Amino acid sequence: MSTPVPELTRQQIESFGEELDAIRRRVVADLGERDSGYIRKVIRAQRGLEVAGRGLMFAGFLPPAWLAGVTALSLSKILDNMEIGHNVMHGQYDWMNDPDLSGKGFEWDTACPADQWRHSHNYMHHTHTNIVGKDRDIGYGILRMSEDQPWHPYYLGNPLYAALLATFFQYGVAFHDLELERVSTGKASLGEKRDMIRAIWDKVRRQTLKDYILFPVLTGPSAPFTLAGNATANLTRNLWAFTIIFCGHFPDGTQEFTEEETAEETRGQWYHRQLLGSANLTGGKLFHVLSGNLSFQIEHHLFPDIPAHRYAEISVEVREACERYGIPYNTGPLHRQFGSVVRKIVRLALPGRRDKPAHDGPRAAPEPAPERRNLTPARV
Amino acid sequence: MRRFGRRILGSPLLEALAAPHGVDRYLELIRPSWSLHEARAEVIEVRRQTADSVTLTLRPNENWKGFRTGQFVRLTVEIGGVRHTRCYSPACSEHAPDRIEITVKAHPEGRVSGFLNRAASPGMVVGLSAADGDFVLPAERPTRLLLISGGSGITPVMSMLRTLCDEGHAGAVTFVHYAQTRDRVPYRRELSEVARRHPNVRIVLAYTREPGATLTGHLSREHLRAVAPEASRAPAYVCGPPGLIESARRIWAEDGIEQLLHIESFLPPSLALPSDRAEGSVSFARARELVPNSGRSLLEQAEQAGLSPQFGCRMGICHTCTCRKTAGSVRNLVSGEVSGAEEEDIQICVSVPVGDVELDL
């Protein structure tokens, strides 16, 4: 199940962090036409798929056209949300100084308003990754995804909630920054969330208008097919995004942290936490692109604002460094990683059954501890 | 037909269908200069008048609304994946139909000017801004006029000269241009052509590094006395490097006729070197960064603190970097003025803090 994490001295963690900083500096200095060309190529492909998908729906009464249309539109939405939207909104392409690719200004093809995402994801999740009580991506305020979340009879529905969240994932993401669980427990009031609710409503309305009214009506007699096709494309994107994202921090071997142990974190410790809390997926090039390169979740969490198509080459160095320091590097194929996530969702529906300690001991041995170096190769 | 197409593409229906990216994000993939809202231009001709400059003819799209002679536009080009914006004054007449001509001198360390000199070719698409700047001729053209330029500062005054010629202006115009050598005078042939055709226009060349022109050396009272005795009564438009601007300022001030002098400087004002008297600290409120004041411009200090504020010309012209100062005083490097401590918009590229400053950045 979980990999025992070697204890590193404070010094080791810091020198590990310095190595990562060096990788970062090198990549940032090298950013240029290769990266701008890449993202523009992906955008061109996405816009082409979008136009093709919408166009094919006009012949949506023919099953092959419908199927091709749904495929094109699903791919368009997946690329838009993951390799383009998510990454651009991290500011990965801010250095290009192109207002259309600016992290502050980008809007994506999903129900969640980009501004709220930037807060809930870029700031909350990426800063407080896997800190139980602070990182709201642990269960999205709906699920029990960590033994450290106290059990409650509500969580008996864990698998059901997960299935619903996967199906309606774009709305789950849209409501994420509202922190409704804090409203339901009386820690926040709906009144103070009025502006956010309005922004969500505006975005949801525009998305609904486009996908479920305008395009179906435009296709005339094909309207029911278009409606069904657009819904299918949204569903496909929802399920795909849920699957990839839940493989980022919940597979076996990823760790959670407490607020206390991360209170006075150094940069090296922050890197260390990102590494221990994230998991990668193995796969081919197309798989990585369609996952928005979140299949390199580890590298993404170490360097969230470096263009994601660079993660593959960065991962070679990160992994090599992890092996030298004996830090587990969690990676595996989609079926294995997602399988372990599903098992966790089911297991945590029930109380107890704690089969590992909340966290595997202290992350850094106290300063005077004897120098220990774990040379076991990282788990593959 | 074209208008009809624009009307359809610009309709709320198309905008709703293209949401969230907008119609322009699709149009530009078909052709980079196509846009419903953004001004862009395609390079249609590249010529080299002198060894160290390039003259580009641009065809702007329909979103560009023209300029008043003497104004500048911000031109955006992409170099190595990064967009850079610089200000250039069109050299063409403001009556030139659907064309912009700019002449770009290659500066040794100029990234954009070097790139344009090296790599500009027909078909290249650049971003444009609306024209800006108040270095313009009054709508009622003066009956006597003095135009003075130095080096690449020739472009806005060349535009004024061409505009006046197009308008059949009958008033007396004296045009004095300073260049290092004869080889470095762009538009030389056209200037002598203008002088031949328009008896009311007098063209005077001055070389600072070789003899052979009417005048030799830098702008001086003697030069003016020799070629432009009307200077004491005629409005003067001067554009050029800081040395030329300084001389003009001094001469006009000594004669007490500053109100006749209009100037445009094209080289960055000498930015303050790190001053040993820099005091206080700079707070970037939104980024939650607090750094000790290094005495450099706020733009540079922001960049040093790891922020990437928007900027354009970095010389106080274009206002791209304009940002809200929420507290503290700043000194404007161009004017030397020290601001009050109230909340106001400032150009951070030419503002240095005087004590503690807080920016909404």
Q: How many H/I helices of chain B?
A: 9
H and E order of chain A: EHHHHHHHHHHEHHHEHE
Helical percentage of chain B: 10-25%
- Largest pleated sheet of chain A: 2 strands, parallel
Number of strand segments of chain B: 17
Q: Mind explaining what this structure looks like?
A:
- The complex is a heterodimer of chains A (380) and B (361).
- Chain A has helices at residues 10-30, 33-56, 63-89, 114-127, 158-167, 169-176, 180-184, 194-218, 223-249, 267-277, 285-290, 297-302, 311-325, 334-347; strands at 8-9, 280-282, 331-333, 364-365.
- Chain A has 380 residues and is mainly alpha-helical.
- Chain A has one domain.
- In chain A, the strands form two sheets. In chain A, strands 1-4 form a two-stranded parallel ribbon.
- Chain A is globular and about 70 Å long.
- Mean pLDDT of chain A is 89; it is low at 355-380.
- Chain B is α/β, with parallel strands linked by helices.
- Chain B has four domains: 1-31, no CATH class; 38-128, Translation factors (Elongation Factor Tu (Ef-tu), domain 3), CATH 2.40.30; 144-265, Rossmann fold (3-Layer(aba) Sandwich), CATH 3.40.50.80; 281-359, Ubiquitin-like (UB roll).
- Chain B has helices at 2-9, 12-18, 24-30, 111-119, 154-166, 188-197, 221-227, 242-254, 298-304; strands at 40-47, 53-60, 73-79, 82-88, 100-105, 125-128, 144-150, 172-179, 201-207, 215-216, 236-240, 261-265, 281-284, 289-292, 322-332, 344-347, 351-359.
- In chain B, the strands form three sheets. Chain B has a six-stranded antiparallel beta sheet with strand order 4-3-6-1-2-5, covered by helices on one side. A six-stranded parallel beta sheet of chain B has the order 10-9-8-7-11-12, with helices on both faces. In chain B, strands 14-13-17-15-16 form a five-stranded mixed beta sheet, with helices on one face.
- In chain B, β3 (73-79) and β4 (82-88) form a beta hairpin.
- The radius of gyration of chain B is 22 Å and the shape is globular.
- Chain B starts with a helix and ends with a strand.
- Residues 268-276 of chain B have low confidence and may be disordered.
- Classes of the chains: A mainly alpha (380), B alpha/beta (361).
- At the A-B interface, α2 and α8 of A face α2, α3 and β4 of B.
